[in-house]
Amino acid sequence: MRKVKVLVVDDSPTMRGLIATALTKDPDIVVVGEAEDPLQARQAIKTLNPDVVTLDVEMPNMSGLEFLEKIMRLRPMPVIMVSTLTKRGAEETLQALEMGAIDCIEKPRPGNEHSFEELPYKVKIAASARVKPLIRTEDSHRQARGIRSAHESYVSDGRVVAIGASTGGVEALLELLSGFPENCPPTVITQHMPPAFTHSFADRLDRLCAPKVQEATDHAKLLPGNVFLAPGGTRHLEITPDLRCRLKAGERVSGHCPSVDVLFNSVARSCKGNAVGVILTGMGKDGAAGLLAMRQAGAKTFGQNESSCIVYGMPKAAFEVGAVESQLPLDRLAAAIIAETSMKKKN
Q: Catalytic: 166?
């Protein structure tokens, strides 16, 4: 098996050393080069032809975002963003994921000294991911928001929409929710993401999409026009029979906390057939068993199709166990969900 070639781009020699050390612990990865700024990195990419680039968000001469845009426009390739735990760092990382970066990881900090332990895993996922060169702008999202919020005839039939996503989910969720009207069905989401980024991600979705999007809080009521994102960290998001969010501490399930399986299973128990399940791009099989439980309970279930996924892992696993009733490309999912949950749906 050919080793994954990685180029490490960071202005700090110490950080480059930490990243290289973390990566070379995996025998399937080789660090073929390092660069301290985008100017060096540009030449290194041409010379070394890496499979994956790790890219610092904040650098001299050219920001990580500016350099990522050039990469995705001129030579699309898998990129993992390495970010500090700052508001600016989180915002720029989320923008990078929207622009086509495959994933992100936090720099080590007090309380999270082992953050780079997941880096080899993320790099190997990135190496096999479908890189999409399309770059979305905030202007296009504002325009989409204006168009989608014009669904004046839409009235939710009361069903809860539960969505699960992982690698590639930032871009996918933004596109999906941009197709939701302001009075969308009550929606809950579990997206695999470091704890530092979920609050900023919810805020960003709220700015760019028509519905009210917020990080889920304990006992929050599920109502039309509201979208709740599971906080990253040590608690799972569940839905109670009286249609409220419950944040419950627990160990990882299907390798994750929060877990898509935990969310979907709670929706199957609490909502029975009064729900719609959606599984989006991501690595692994988290959500497959839970989505199957939803379908068996009578819920309508959708899966993102292979050609539109960054990583066709989670949707594939769900499809293979019979959990997915309909597979659709990402650009058709929002319309399908809205049509399915409309009070005016034709029987």
A: yes
Name the active-site residue from 83, 115, 156, 166: 166
Contact by Cβ (8 Å): 51, 78: yes
The domains located in the chain, with CATH, are: 4-127 (3.40.50.2300), 138-341 (3.40.50.180)
Sign of CA dihedral 160, 315, 124, 254: positive
Q: 10, 56, 103, 286: which is the annotated catalytic residue? A: 286
Instruction: Indicate the pLDDT class of residue 108, thresholds 50, 70 and 90.
Output: confident
Whether 280 has a pLDDT exceeding 90, the answer reads: yes
Cα–Cα distance measured from residue 301 to residue 346, given in angstroms and rounded to the nearest whole number:
18
Active-site pick, 192, 261, 266, 270: 192
- List CB contacts of 166: < 8 A, sequence separation 6 or more: 191, 192, 256, 260, 280, 281, 282, 283, 284, 286, 311, 313, 314
Which among 234, 299, 223, 282 is positioned nearest to 262, based on CA atoms? 234
Please, what is the end-to-end C-alpha distance for the chain in angstroms? Answer: 53
Place of tokens 């039309």: 224
194's tokens:
């470091």
Q: Is 286 a catalytic residue?
A: yes
Amino acid identity at 72 = M
User: What pTM was estimated for this model as a whole?
Assistant: 0.90
Closest CA to 323 of 257, 242, 267, 270: 267
HSE toward the beta carbon, residue 28, CA cutoff 13 A: 11
Confidence of residue 58 (pLDDT cuts 50, 70, 90): confident
- Is 236 an annotated catalytic residue? no
Give the count of alpha carbons within 13 A of 139, CB side only.
Answer: 1
